[in-house]
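Per reviewer request, we include the raw input and output of the structure prediction for the construct analysed in the revised manuscript.
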Amino acid sequence: MLLLPSRKMRGRHKAPPPNRSGTAIVELAVCLPFLGLMIFASLEGANMLFVRQALVQSAYETSKASARVKTTQAQAEVIGRQVLAARRIDNPTFTFTPADVDALAPGTPFTVSVSAPGDSRSITGIGPFNGLTIQAQATMNKE
């Protein structure tokens, strides 16, 4: 026959649970700065990718406009600036290679390079892309 301890005896021999009342607060205090850093780094990285994509689009639109016979180089640059202004990107720089696209013979390739400061859409102003220049280029043939 198997003897089991009575109900009164079962609960008496257990050790009391450890006191963990402040553990969650300490874990939060350790992890919260890291989580905040990760969130802001993700936002800055996404903004950098947005600026890069906008520069690619601007370079493409500028070179497409420059390739046309009836559009001057200055008009094409205005189109590229409008693309960037719509995306709130400040201080772009346009470079045409060769310098005078209007004088090119039909079928001659040319390149449009567009660059902007890396912090032109920064949220914090202290991100890792401050001081960097983001650049994109597009090459087309003159019509």
